[in-house]
Amino acid sequence: MDTTTKANRKYSKQIPVYIYDNADAASTHVAKQIVDLIRKKSERGECPVLGLATGSTPLPVYRELIKLYRNNKISFQNVITFNLDEYYPIEPSTRQSCAAYMYDNLFNHIDIKEKNIHIPSGNLNRDEIAEYCRNYENKIVDHGGIDLQLLGIGRTGHIGFNEPGSVMNSNMRAVKLDKLTREDAADDFMGEENVPRQGITMGVSTILGADKIILMAWGKHKANIVAQLVEDNISKHVPATFLQEHSNAEVILDKSAACKLT
Length: 262
Ligand code: F6R
What we know:
Layout (H helix, E strand, L loop, with lengths): L7 E4 L4 E5 L2 H21 L5 E4 L6 H12 L9 E4 L1 E4 L9 H8 L11 E2 L10 H14 L5 E4 L21 E4 L2 H6 L13 E4 L2 H5 L3 E6 L5 H9 L17 E6 L8
Parallel strand pairs: 2-11, 3-4, 3-7, 4-6, 7-10, 10-11
Antiparallel strand pairs: 1-2, 5-9, 8-9
Bound molecules: fructose -6-phosphate.
């Protein structure tokens, strides 16, 4: 059965919101959209460009994509990926890095080509960062822009590592991580004091440049910030609200993350 029929669709002013019974059902639907995009662009001889996120939220989507690949339903041979962000400073080999996460949870299990993978580097010298970020954004443009950007949302309202205070026209850059973001990462790093204080992130403007954006959120702990994202006015205090400005963004929730929507 098509899982979309199980979704209960609601509208905010601008963002369509789809509510599923649970994260697995929602993720099956998201994976299907990714597969449809890959097939459609591949049939035209074009390379699909995916913007990817780390964290717990996209894990069931990545599991579903791996399953579809193993069942010969899809190939990632011509897929190009750009990850949203990385901690700074961090080595890519560090278990908690976004780079290690992506290989462990997706890239090592599919047929994507190494040269098509882009993940912001967390081990640059400080004076290299600005130029590195400009080059990263130029590469996105050179590939024709991001077709589909996956996002989670932090409890601060961040998308990527665009913490409160990030403006709508922000580009890729080094940022200071919010205290709440570092607290949320503390378990992964075995203590808040071990969580890097900064990150390198695509900017809000980089993210809004994607053709389509899917923000996912699961669990009651996301319900408050999801309600702000969907129902509050656009504000730099909750950077995810900038998605309301995008003409092709959608929010995919499980029932718990949706429980504060009015
Ligand atoms: C990850 C990212 C972050 C996370 C957000 C939610 O690449 O950019 O914005 O999406 O912090 O994290 P989880 O999914 O762990 O709740």
